[in-house]
Amino acid sequence: MDYLWIRGGRPLAGEIVCQGAKNSVLPLLAGAIVFRQGCRIHNCPQLTDVEAALAILTRLGCRVRRTGGTVEVDPTGLTGNRIPRALMGAMRSSVLFLGPLLARTGSCCLCQPGGCPLGSRPIDLHLLGLQALGAEVERAEGWLYCRGKLRGAAITLPFPSVGATENLILAALGAEGTTTIYNAAREPEVADLIAMLSAGGANIAGGGSAMLQITGGLPQWAEYRVMPDRMAAATYLCAAAGTGGELRLLEAEPRHLQPVLQALTAAGCTISPGAGELHLKAPARLKAVSPVRTAPYPGFPTDAQAPLMAALARSRGVTVFEENVFASRYGHVPALQAMGANIRTAGAVAALTGVPELHGAQVEATDLRGGAAMVIAALQARGISRIGGLAHLNRGYADFPRQLELLGGDVKLERRGLPDELGRTEPA
Ligand code: EPZ
Prior knowledge:
Elements: E1 3-7, E2 13-17, H1 22-31, E3 38-42, H2 48-59, E4 63-67, E5 70-74, H3 85-88, H4 98-105, E6 107-111, H5 124-132, E7 136-140, E8 143-147, E9 154-156, H6 162-172, E10 178-182, H7 188-199, E11 203-205, E12 211-215, E13 221-225, H8 230-242, E14 246-250, H9 258-266, E15 270-274, E16 277-281, E17 292-293, H10 305-311, E18 318-322, H11 333-338, E19 342-346, E20 349-353, E21 362-364, H12 368-380, E22 384-388, H13 390-396, H14 400-406, E23 410-414
Parallel strand pairs: 2-14, 3-13, 9-10, 17-18, 21-22
Antiparallel strand pairs: 1-22, 1-23, 3-5, 4-5, 6-8, 7-8, 10-12, 11-12, 14-16, 15-16, 18-20, 19-20
Helix pairs in contact: 1-2, 1-7, 4-6, 5-6, 6-7, 8-10, 8-12, 10-12, 12-13
This protein binds ligand EPZ.
Ligand EPZ is lined by residues 22-23, 26, 92-93, 116, 121-126, 159, 161-164, 187, 231, 302-303, 325-327, 368-369, 396.
């Protein structure tokens, strides 16, 4: 297992470029299957989740070529429709291959996807929508078999699920007739997927709104650039804010981050959004902010809850968090408490009382954004921290240690040589 050693107490300062969005590139790569000729995608971040998506495409018979930040996918050789358990378990986004495979081949076989342990993460909304489109779904020995000739339908999602919206958009392109999705997710990553599909000739109306209309018909070919990663941006902004530092973030999109920018401004930061970039200057010590309630876009993003909590760990006052999107998303709290943070949780609520100082500790990430929160706390803490479970961080942050070093962080990566798997713990 690798470890990140961090000596805290130094304000971060400097300029970095925001990576391409993990939560956009993954649906785009799954969506590559529905293009008749294929697609070329730029600004793909170097992440293990992207590698897993490329491995699934290759396993399904697509030709995949990666040159730096550009990935080309040629799905004309698609032969498979079954995704191996190991690849399904690598990430949540493996479920996003369900819709495109049904659209392209009329059948698909997969098992429960992996992903961050944030409480139960069923896929019932995905299946509800696919069945409305005419797919038959059977479960046997832990496998899910889906098949059928898809027909356009009107689907109302009980919850604006991001993944279910993306899966249903892709499936609907293979359906006969028009599909309308009500209460669709409005996250920018959904709009990014719609933009790439439309660039290939797909007919999709309502991108960015809660009502989408998809006319059946597969797109041809598109070349597309992934949007900036708003959660990576939120993470680096919170790291600079928590350490009393200053950050210029290039290739960021301020309008995707309004609730986070509002919270950091309320905490005392000066934020100047520019054209495609963000500049933040933080005071030595932040102020507590009014309750942070996570919600589907355009509400406060659940993925920024843990990073903001860590940034506010040394703030003056009490900040209340309410996690309304996932059943259990305070896995990072024990580690922050081990560093001296004063946090009390009760169900969906967490009350953070800022303390004057944090101290180093040995902790282990249990999920992607929780791991980022541990890094943000360690960067503020007096003394040295050791952070394990880096496989979680490598799923969503490209070159994380290097980016923090560029900002002046005293960060060292210790490679223990053994490849780390998600969730594997050191032998006793
Ligand atoms: C996407 O996950 C993101 N992942 C998540 O980011 C993000 O937190 C989430 O959207 C919400 O914005 C990717 O895009 C790869 P959901 P997804 O379906 O699609 C429940 C990160 O850190 N639900 O909107 O899985 C579900 O349990 C990750 O980058 C059902 O009950 O999110 C959750 O409570 C973490 N049944 C809520 O809806 C379903 O069929 C939101 O899930 C689907 C979802």
